[in-house]
Amino acid sequence: MRFNRACGTLVHPTSFPSKYGIGDLGTEAREFLQFLTETRQSVWQILPLGPTGYGNSPYASYSAFAGNPFLISPDILIEKGLLTKDEASKAILPSSTRVDYDTVFANKSALFEKAYKRYEEQNGKAGGKDLKNFARKNTFWLKDYCLFTACSEYYDRKPWNKWDQDIARRKPAAIKKAEKDLADRIRYHRWLQFEFYNQWLSLKETANKNGITIIGDIPIFVDHNSADCWAHSKYFEVDEIGNRLLVAGVPPDYFSATGQLWGNPLYKWKELKKDGYLWWIKRFEQMLVMVDAIRVDHFRGFDAYWEVKAEAKTAEHGRWVKGPGTDLFDTILKKLGELPIIAEDLGVITSDVVYLRDKYDFPGMKILQFAWSDNAGNSFIPHNYNTSNCVVYTGTHDNDTSRGWYDSATDLEKHRLREYVRSACEKPEAELIRLAMTSCANQAIFPLQDLMGLGTEHRMNLPGTVENNWMWRYTHEMLEMIDKGSIRYLVELTNRDPKAKLQDANLVELVTEEAN
Questions:
Q1: Contact, 56 vs 101, CB < 8 A?
Q2: 3-state DSSP: the chain helix, strand, coil percent, rounded to 5?
Q3: Are 496 and 354 part of one and the same domain?
Q4: Given 344, 345, 400, 450, which residue is catalytic?
């Protein structure tokens, strides 16, 4: 699928300046949408929305289908009469550009418990009509996720392969007993998902009404300690008691000399194929309820993936194994129709990966921070883009901010950029943004930090590390200080406002009719 010429901003909801210590889906989210509208941007890209596990990474989620309950806005719960202002005030934290996850989890959990108690008092244990409809529509994943989460609490958040073996292996009698013993917690987690989806889909509706497309993110792999791996263990490289056998990663690359050892269990693609890739079809189907388009993380893994033994300490010693390739996407397309996918085609890219991407007309990614290591044949430098069917970024969530990148770049890289843009690069992020906007790429997307001109201390993630990631937030003042006029000027100059194109087309049609 090809995308319209447009531009937008990459920022995750956790980065919004909510007064509760972590961004949420309330007022500040709508203020951000207003910022996009005022600057004539029409794309909002986010990271995965799932409930976060190890390291608070959205790429290590407890579920490939569920939403992160800590994005729920207490202020919306107040509006619904499920919390009082006084109760919510006890969870307010000082303004900060960092998420204090432990404090946030404790504070918001206490609020949600109160809100759910009131919801149940009003609607009974079975829940209201809307909740029942939500549960029915999401039968494929919701029941397993809620039971998994309740069991995880019961077993002190230990990984599921460390639970009692009968429940870990999903013996029917153990499942039935857990459903009875943990019924209250199962209902609570079902309500959290119901509330998350209500708030998110309301926000998405507002975005779409204002002409804003939301690009979501689907990690190719899922976390070992997830409802998906527990409920569908036959699809994953784990042994009979749930221990990982083969895991995912990438060999040494730009980000790490020893590679990246992600630790996610690899898929048993032959097992997935037996039932027509049902789990993957359901996953894409659910994503397209949540968002308008999907960035597929580590797209090359569908052609071939890096296989590492679970006991390995680094990802240096592994092997490439052929993935499902066209068989998977042909099946999904047959079931769901055209897929609005962006292929994250970074890393070791072969001709087979290019073929897989281009067969379905999926746009790839261009990262401008990668464009200055050499001039000859560098696919990230704008004059080498051989198609407009791509998405250009100054950087992604895995890169340093553009100002931080420039400050640590080699003298040669700095020289090449300065020569290319004919500038002293006092504001390197602005130069990269302008390059992206004036390129032929259909979509140009920028981390919000680059629009704010921020340095390394505002980086979102450093691949290969666990601590101090996924914490960045902005303040109201930081958003207000962005030069909106310069963004609007670039949007108009580079023809990246789909609304304006529609208006121009209508004007041409009107003038033509008058002439006739």
A1: yes
A2: 50, 15, 40
A3: no
A4: 344
Whether residue 380 lies inside any domain: the answer is no
CATH code for the domain of 192? 3.20.20.80
Do 496 and 471 share a structural domain?
no
Asked if residue 43 lies in contact with residue 7, where contact means CB atoms within 8 angstroms, the answer is: yes
Q: 215: Cβ–Cβ under 8 A, 6 or more apart, which residues?
A: 8, 43, 44, 45, 46, 291, 292, 293, 294, 295, 342, 445
- Residue 297 bears catalytic tag: yes
Distance between CA atoms of 112 and 460, rounded to whole angstroms?
A: 27
Which is catalytic among the residues 228, 398, 450, 497?
Answer: 398
Whether residue 204 lies inside any domain: the answer is yes
How far apart (Å, rounded) are the C-alpha atoms in residues 135 and 377?
Answer: 52
Residue type, 346: L
Question: Are 300 and 324 members of one domain?
Answer: yes
In a domain, 27, yes or no: yes
The number of distinct structural domains making up the chain is 2
Structure tokens at 512: 């033509």
Give the number of other Cβ atoms within 10 Å of residue 492's Cβ: 12
Amino acid at 121: E
DSSP, collapsed to helix, strand or coil, labels residue 285 as helix
Q: Which of 195, 297, 400, 497 is catalytic?
A: 297
pLDDT tens digits along 342-380: 999 988 789 999 999 999 999 999 999 999 987 678 999
398 is catalytic: yes
Please tell me whether residues 470 and 498 are part of one structural domain.
no
Q: Which domain holds residue 490?
A: 483-516
> Is 373 domain-assigned?
no
Q: What H or E segment, with its residue span, contains residue 271?
A: helix 269-274
CB atoms within 10 A of CB 443: 28
Percent of the chain with pLDDT over 70: 96
Condensed to tens digits (0 to 9), the pLDDT of residues 272-303 reads 999 999 999 999 999 999 999 999 999 999 99
